[in-house]
């Protein structure tokens, strides 16, 4: 709402200098279907839904009833085109509206859309322009309803959406876990005025209060007092000022603290209390600062009073007063802490500026039921959160006038919590938060940069027949390198920075340039080789006495896990020495006692009654899955334990995917009666995890997996591999027994954990009062 | 983080609240006033006359046998952030004998105070507030109310020194922040010992006392009937017979909000730094005025809707989705974001908008406190309301309107 000024004057002169980089913004516009626009006082947010055509790797089993010829691959790999849905959100300054509308008009070809949903104070002002340019009918939507809808959407679909702001802490932003149930919450929207909205469910919300002292008061009164016209400049002034020369403090009245009421001397007793005099001049900075404190404190106080009255502890702040401004986030946070004595934290949202556009879009897309799906932030296409603090972000000046983007992919399945999490609301997948751990951050950013050449080479090698593989791979390199550089300066750009997010970002970037599965051929070859050894391995295991066999099975599991192209140390070895074999891997393993060694407890447990059902999150393809996991699973099945194998839905590194695993399982069943019987009797089930990451977020799993887990009364969870058991879930607390095992294939990480490369983690955990232990 | 070295720590300053209560003294002042010195000090206003001194007073006044009244003169003062409020009890039943005994200093003080309505350039006696023929500690007399700016306190001390005030007393009852801040000055400049009394305690006793003592004349406590209807809005007396629980909102330079459950059971619920000092401070900066009276006078001639952005300015009418009528202020000073509008408003408009903004904000915080504390009766006191009918009517209006009539705003004659 709040703009005036330079609507007409600035625009046309600016237009000439504006050239839009078409590769970068308004992507996939050709297939754009549905539009929404949110025009605020200074920024426009455009949303559209589009389909993205990209390549996916498919595997298809050969018909192996035909005679088998040595050297024939196990299965066929093909790259196919697939169409997926993506939401695009773009934010730009209002000055660009006309240019952008022209661009859209020129590039919009396939749409059948007749209307554009619009919200925000500027919607009516630009109504005619939009209708004229785009030939779409502008359909206005209520601003607050859009805001709430957008807020629900980001809270549900973007992990680490909300954060606490701490100006003086090591990491400026502390991201919050998405609570499984986002309701109820309080949204304080600070635009020109303040609206306080209580949100109880997707469709139920109520404006429970408000205040006229808001961003408009800061801006309007600030402009009068300091003769400074722009909001940003006022904030700059405020950040340099000293409020104590303008405000009357408790100590100005008492000479010190007012102890009996617990009011410290530095508290403001009366805002502007010292300016009631004609014989003194006050600096612009000081007045702006005093004004900022006055308004922030007042809003904070009201927010607390409403939160208390309605018994709410989750309070989100948004609106142009807040929008990414460290100064206002800080003063609001301070005020909330003061008034609630820390009981309530002020929460901010990474995509706060997009809420209105997202909501307006969702309103228009109701027939597509967007809320029925889960959505995921695409790290490759989103520009991330930027600090506007000049200290933190020297590039900020350069950025002004650029376009900020958010892209969200529609996921094929709905994602939910693993029902076996002890406390879903406190579950944090990632073991180390690199936003807070500067040393680890430096190491991992360096590590990923070092490994980039190898990834590029493998990507090129994976597509010998496809056009422009080299060029695309080079583009991928540039993009990922740029992401890494951004993260070096702005570690919080996509929420908490973690090894997982670095890996996921890499996968997103690879997909972006049509490298859906660079490891497909390697996986195929390794699976093929490993399958040939399967029977031999099983036979030799069967000969061993029980105790020795259990140990050999675990050792096989661990040795298999050494085969991981994701770890640089291993990919070097594998690349230089293809003969590096299963037996050799066993020798590489650390001797017992391992770095984390719960083996004795595990064996003790095996002497007890069998588990009802084990859920096994598998890791790599090839030797790992075939010679490590399957023999282990076979033993469980023989004990009478049902097994659910959970594998990735989409490719990531050399991890085995669900479709590959189905083929492998068929082949193994063909040669092993135990596996065959288990499949027939439905005691061995394959499910997909819903993930395409080398890591594992147990709070975002395929809904079907959760159903199976519940139905089968799963009482053991096995998580294998560095990505799933070390980088993530190392501290995950489950409500049933769990086994987390991995070989540390990174010397830096091994050292950090107090070991050496190829150290073994074998973590067997039993929750308090697990029924499994009661015998 | 630190954009500029220094301000980082002042952030701390944010503390909005604080409420400086002090100014509001009026209420308390009166009450407490009678007590002057250590002796009786407590004076405990009305209630005390009949009864025993309360424990708390007794504590203060070690040596106050009931029969020995404190020696005259009887003063009480409240030193706030902006104003000093002084109450003086002028005995009218002085016997000839006493008159004779009365030392010259005492006589001159009495004459000086009661024969003037203005002292120096800034001291003022509010004659209309004077309470006549009160009985206090067995003496009959008039209670006078005098105020002057806190910044002139040194001049006051100088006068006390010149008139040898210290020859009459060893201690002077005082409350407010200044009782702490200026204690050393009183001792050193005027050789006066301050007997410091708790400010909130004084405030509440003052409110109750003034109500009880003033039963003969016009009712001390009153409210506005039909506050939402400008034509039928009239002042009606209110009997504070059974006052508890009540919310006491003391608007001085800052604001303190107290929940009072009985004479001795109360707590400060919260406060805000947006108070009378903010109104005056902003008005001085925005309009160049220099006194509260001047600022109020300007405000009375201004039009705040030229400065504020109303709901109808944004939505063209009511915001029906949320039941907000078009005349509601959506953004205080919101029109001032626009250069043309900044150039078209008058100083009077700005003063009016400042007054409305501060007053409505106090109303809204008060209303939330009332809800949280589950209290329906609200007494507004404090010097901000002195000669400020505009704000009182606004407060009455906003209490009534936003609570759908459940909350009642009460005011006191002596606050004004």
Automatic annotation (TrEMBL), chain B:
Its EC number is 2.7.1.33. GO terms for biological process: coenzyme A biosynthetic process. Residues 1-73 are annotated as: Disordered. Keywords: ATP-binding, Coenzyme A biosynthesis, Cytoplasm, Kinase, Nucleotide-binding, Transferase. It is found in: Cytoplasm. It catalyses: (R)-pantothenate + ATP = (R)-4'-phosphopantothenate + ADP + H(+). Transmembrane segments: none annotated. Residues 53-66 have a biased composition (Basic and acidic residues). InterPro entries: ATPase_NBD, Type_II_PanK. Catalyzes the phosphorylation of pantothenate to generate 4'-phosphopantothenate in the first and rate-determining step of coenzyme A (CoA) synthesis. PANTHER family: PANTOTHENATE KINASE, PANTOTHENATE KINASE 2, MITOCHONDRIAL. Homodimer. Belongs to the type II pantothenate kinase family. This is Pantothenate kinase 3. It comes from Paramormyrops kingsleyae.
């Amino acid at each position: 709402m709040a703009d005036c000024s330079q609507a007409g004057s600035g625009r046309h002169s600016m237009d000439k200098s504006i050239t839009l980089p078409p590769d970068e913004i308004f992507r996939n516009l050709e297939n754009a279907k549905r539009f929404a626009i949110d025009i605020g006082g200074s920024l426009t947010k455009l949303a559209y839904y589009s389909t993205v055509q990209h390549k996916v790797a498919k595997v298809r089993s050969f018909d192996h009833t035909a005679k088998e010829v040595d050297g024939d691959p196990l299965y066929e790999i093909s790259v196919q085109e697939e169409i997926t849905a993506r939401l695009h959100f773009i934010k730009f300054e209002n000055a660009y509206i006309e240019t952008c509308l022209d661009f859209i008009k020129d590039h919009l070809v396939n749409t059948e859309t007749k209307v554009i949903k619009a919200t925000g104070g500027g919607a009516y002002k630009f109504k005619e322009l939009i209708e004229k340019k785009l030939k779409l009918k502008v359909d206005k939507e209520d601003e607050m309803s859009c805001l709430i809808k957008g807020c629900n959407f980001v809270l549900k679909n973007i992990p680490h959406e909300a954060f606490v702001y701490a100006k003086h802490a090591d990491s400026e932003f502390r991201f919050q876990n998405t609570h499984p149930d986002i309701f109820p919450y309080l949204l304080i929207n600070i635009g020109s005025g303040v609206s306080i909205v209580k949100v109880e469910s997707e469709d139920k919300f109520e404006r429970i209060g408000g205040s006229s002292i808001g961003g408009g008061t800061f801006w309007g009164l600030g402009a009068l007092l300091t003769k400074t016209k722009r909001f940003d400049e006022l904030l700059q002034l405020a950040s340099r000022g000293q409020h104590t020369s303008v405000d009357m403090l408790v100590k100005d009245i008492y000479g010190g603290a007012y102890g009996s009421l617990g009011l410290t001397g530095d508290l403001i007793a009366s805002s502007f209390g010292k300016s009631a005099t004609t014989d003194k001049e006050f600096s612009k900075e000081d007045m702006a600062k005093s004004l900022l404190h006055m308004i922030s404190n007042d809003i904070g106080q009201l927010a607390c009073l409403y939160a208390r009255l309605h018994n709410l502890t989750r309070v989100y702040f948004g609106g142009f007063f807040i929008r990414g401004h460290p100064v206002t986030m800080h003063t609001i946070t301070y005020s909330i802490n003061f008034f609630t004595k820390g009981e309530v934290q002020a929460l901010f949202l990474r995509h706060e500026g997009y809420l209105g556009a997202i909501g307006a879009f969702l309103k228009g897309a109701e027939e597509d039921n967007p809320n029925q799906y889960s959505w995921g932030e695409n790290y490759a296409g989103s520009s991330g959160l930027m600090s506007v603090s000049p200290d933190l972000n020297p590039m900020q000046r350069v950025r002004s006038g650029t376009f900020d983007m958010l892209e969200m992919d529609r996921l094929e399945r709905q994602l939910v919590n693993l029902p076996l999490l002890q406390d879903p609301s406190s579950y944090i997948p990632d073991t180390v938060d690199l936003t807070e751990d500067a040393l680890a951050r430096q190491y991992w950013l360096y590590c990923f940069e070092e490994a980039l050449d190898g990834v590029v080479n493998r990507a090129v090698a994976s597509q010998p027949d496809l056009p422009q593989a080299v060029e695309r791979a080079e583009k991928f390199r540039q993009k990922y390198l740029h992401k890494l550089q951004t993260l070096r300066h702005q570690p919080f750009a996509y929420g908490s920075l973690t090894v997982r997010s670095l890996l996921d970002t890499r996968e997103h970037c690879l997909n972006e340039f049509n490298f859906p599965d660079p490891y497909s051929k390697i996986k195929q070859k390794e699976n093929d080789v490993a399958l040939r050894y399967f029977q031999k391995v099983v036979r030799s295991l069967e000969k061993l006495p029980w105790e020795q066999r259990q140990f050999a099975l675990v050792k096989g599991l661990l040795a298999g896990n050494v085969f991981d192209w994701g770890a640089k140390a291993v990919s070097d070895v594998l690349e230089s020495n293809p003969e590096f074999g299963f037996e050799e891997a066993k020798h590489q393993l650390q001797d017992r006692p391992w770095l984390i060694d719960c083996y004795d407890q595990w064996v003790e447990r095996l002497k007890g009654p069998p588990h009802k059902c084990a859920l096994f999150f598998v890791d790599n393809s090839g030797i790992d899955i075939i010679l490590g996991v399957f023999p282990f699973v076979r033993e469980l099945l023989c004990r009478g334990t049902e097994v659910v194998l959970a594998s990735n839905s989409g490719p990531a590194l050399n991890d085995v995917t669900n479709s590959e695993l189905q083929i492998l399982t068929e082949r193994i069943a063909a040669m092993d009666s135990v596996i065959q019987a288990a499949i027939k009797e439905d005691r061995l089930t394959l499910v997909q995890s819903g993930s395409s990451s080398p890591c594992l977020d147990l709070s975002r799993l395929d809904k079907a997996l959760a159903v199976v887990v519940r139905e089968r009364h799963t009482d053991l969870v096995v998580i294998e591999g560095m990505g799933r058991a070390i980088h993530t879930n190392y501290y995950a607390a489950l409500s049933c027994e769990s086994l987390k095992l991995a070989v540390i294939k990174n010397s830096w990480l091994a050292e950090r954990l107090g070991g050496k490369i190829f150290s073994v983690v074998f973590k067997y955990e039993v929750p308090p009062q697990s029924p499994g232990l009661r015998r | 983080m630190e954009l500029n070295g220094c301000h980082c720590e002042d952030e701390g300053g944010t503390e909005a609240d604080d409420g400086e209560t002090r100014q509001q003294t009026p209420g308390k002042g009166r009450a407490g006033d009678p007590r002057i010195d250590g002796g009786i000090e407590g004076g405990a206003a009305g209630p005390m006359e009949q009864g025993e001194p309360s424990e708390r007073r007794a504590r203060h006044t070690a040596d106050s046998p009931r029969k020995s009244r404190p020696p005259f003169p009887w003063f009480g003062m409240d030193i706030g952030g902006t104003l000093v409020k002084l109450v003086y009890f002028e005995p009218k039943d002085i016997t000839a004998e006493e008159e004779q005994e009365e030392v010259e200093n005492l006589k001159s003080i009495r004459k000086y105070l009661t024969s003037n309505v203005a002292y120096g350039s800034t001291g003022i006696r509010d004659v209309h507030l004077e309470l006549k023929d009160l009985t206090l500690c067995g003496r009959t007399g008039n209670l006078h109310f005098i105020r002057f700016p806190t910044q002139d306190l040194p001049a006051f001390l100088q006068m006390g020194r010149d008139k040898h005030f210290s020859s009459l007393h060893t201690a002077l009852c005082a409350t407010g922040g200044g009782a702490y801040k200026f204690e050393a000055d009183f001792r050193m400049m005027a050789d006066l010992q301050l007997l410091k009394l708790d400010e909130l305690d004084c405030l509440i006793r003052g409110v109750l006392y003034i109500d009880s003592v003033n039963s003969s004349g016009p009712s001390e406590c009153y409210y506005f009937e039909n506050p939402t209807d400008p034509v039928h809005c009239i002042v009606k007396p209110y009997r504070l017979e059974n006052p508890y629980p009540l919310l006491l909102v003391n608007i001085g330079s800052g604001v303190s909000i107290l929940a009072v459950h009985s004479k001795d059971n109360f707590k400060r619920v919260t406060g805000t730094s947006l108070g009378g000092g903010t109104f005056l401070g902003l008005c001085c900066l925005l309009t160049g005025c220099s006194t509260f009276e001047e600022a109020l006078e300007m405000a009375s001639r201004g039009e705040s809707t030229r400065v504020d952005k109303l709901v109808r300015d944004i939505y063209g009418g009511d915001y029906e989705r949320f039941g907000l009528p078009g005349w509601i202020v959506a953004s205080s000073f919101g029109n001032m974001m626009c250069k043309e509008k900044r150039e078209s408003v008058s100083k009077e408009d700005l003063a009016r908008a400042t007054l409305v903004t501060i007053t409505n904000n106090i109303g809204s915080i008060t209303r939330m406190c009332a809800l949280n504390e589950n209290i329906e009766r609200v007494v507004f006191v404090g010097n901000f309301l002195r000669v400020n009918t505009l704000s009182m009517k606004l407060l009455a209006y906003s209490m009534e309107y936003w609570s759908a009539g459940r909350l009642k705003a009460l005011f006191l004659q002596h606050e004004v």
